[in-house]
Design a protein that fits this description.
membrane; EC 2.7.7.60; Nucleotide-diphossugar_trans; transferase; single chain; 10 strands; alpha/beta; 2-C-methyl-D-erythritol 4-phosphate cytidylyltransferase; disordered N terminus; eight-stranded mixed β-sheet; 39% helix
Length: 251
């Protein structure tokens, strides 16, 4: 049995690709550059997620998707802040176009079977843990698609005007706040994105495109409160506080 497990692990080793999207700007953070390249405890925000994905067993390829004007910043990250080679590509005007660019970049390796699973992560979520990435990868391989989520216990239904609804039937236990990385069977999600491109469909995230164009069940694993997205200046300050309080270091 142990030999069988080792054999299966060997076959899966390195066959997943990690994609990190850094297509945003620094406008809402109040910075003059893409927020992915702002510093967090001595390394760029993007480097944290890239290094975490790189450290997960089974992820053999790292694709870093950036705006064309940020290619030099990305090359600096690859040369100075990451220990694994990065495949740096320019993204599109939207998140979906950037995801499609990454999937097309991987298409030959997906078609050949060299890449069996793709994990897509936001560079603006720097504090994702090794354990969460591993859990998403495992679940995606088991079911075809997986996302991390936090139960949305703080949501209430709205009534008429500016009041909260009384006795609403909104079941908050059935709602989750979705995070990244989101993982999917590679060939299936590539086909889904190509179909979405033909139809002009634009989803909110990878899972929405999968739900629209595939029959695979998208499962969810328990996310992490520290895996928040840096959008505003206070989010970066919070991330710095979390790093300090927990004694975290970029992998």
């Amino acid at each position: 049995m142990n030999q069988l497990r080792r054999s299966r692990s060997s076959r899966l080793q390195g066959r997943a690709a990690g994609v990190v999207l850094a297509g945003g700007s620094g406008t809402r953070v109040g910075a003059g550059i893409n927020k992915a390249f702002l510093s967090l405890a001595g390394r760029s925000i993007a480097a944290w997620g890239l290094n975490t994905l790189a450290a997960v067993e089974g992820i053999g390829i790292l694709v870093f998707v950036v705006r064309p004007e940020d290619l030099e910043h990305a090359r600096f990250v690859a040369a100075r802040e990451t220990d694994r080679p990065l495949e740096i590509i320019p993204g599109g005007e939207t998140r979906q176009e950037s995801e499609l660019a990454a999937l097309r970049h991987l298409a030959d390796r997906i078609d050949s079977g060299a890449v069996d699973t793709v994990l897509i992560h936001d560079a603006a979520r720097p504090l994702v843990s090794h354990g969460l990435v591993s859990a998403v990868l495992h679940a995606a391989r088991e079911t075809g698609g997986a996302v991390p989520g936090i139960p949305a216990a703080d949501i209430a239904p709205v009534g008429e005007g500016d009041t909260l609804a009384r006795g609403g039937d909104l079941r908050t236990e059935a709602l989750v706040r979705v995070q990244t990385p989101q993982g999917f069977h590679a060939a299936t999600i590539l086909d889904a994105y190509e179909a979405a491109a033909r139809d002009g469909f634009v989803g909110t995230d990878t899972a929405s495109c999968a739900e629209e164009y595939t029959d695979i069940p998208v499962t969810w694993v328990r996310g992490e409160e520290t895996n928040f997205k840096i959008t505003y200046a206070q989010d970066l300050l919070l991330a710095q506080d979390v790093v300090s309080a927990l004694g975290l270091r970029s992998p």
